[in-house]
Please model this.
Amino acid sequence: MSPPWSQPLDVDRLSRGEAEIDFDVPLPELSRLRSRVPGIGGSVHGTARFGRQSRFVVAGLSFTGKASLQCQRCMQTMELAIDSTSHVALIALEADAAEVPEELEPVLARAGRISAGELLEEELLLALPIVPLHEQLRDCAVSPSAPLVPGEAPEHVSQRPFEGLGDLLKRK
Ligand SMILES: [Zn+2]
Model:
C-alpha cells in the first residue's frame, strides 16, 4: 500500500473544509528530488493548512527535518537542517500562474490534485542548495582552495591540526 503522503489530495475539497494535514516524508522516496540530488537522505515532518484566497486554493506549508547531502567539496555526507514555511496557490492550469497574487507561490496541482509529497518536493527543489557544501570549514575534509571535482573523493581524510588557520585565512 502506498504511504499517505503519496496519495493525491483533492485540494478544492480540502480548502472548503479548511483542512489541515500532517505528513512525514522520507526524502529518498521523492523521485524528482532523488534524481536532482543523488544520494539524498533524511526525512521531513510538516503540516499543510488549506484555505482560499480570492479564487485560489491556497496552502500554508510548514515543515522541519533533516536532509543528508553529499558535500561537493569533500564528498562526505553532511546534514542540513530544514525549517521552512511557505504559502502556495494551488493552480490547476499553468496559465493561472500569472494571476496568482505576488505573495503566493504558484504550484501546479493538475486536475486539482496533488499529494503532500509532491507539494513538499516542489518546495525542497527550490530550497535545497544546488551545490551543497559544508558551511563550516572545520566540518569539511577539504580546504576551500582545493578544486571542485564532483565525483572524485579525496584519497584520505587527514587530521588537520591547523584547521583554525583555514578559517582565519578565509576571513582576510
Ligand atoms: Zn565538505
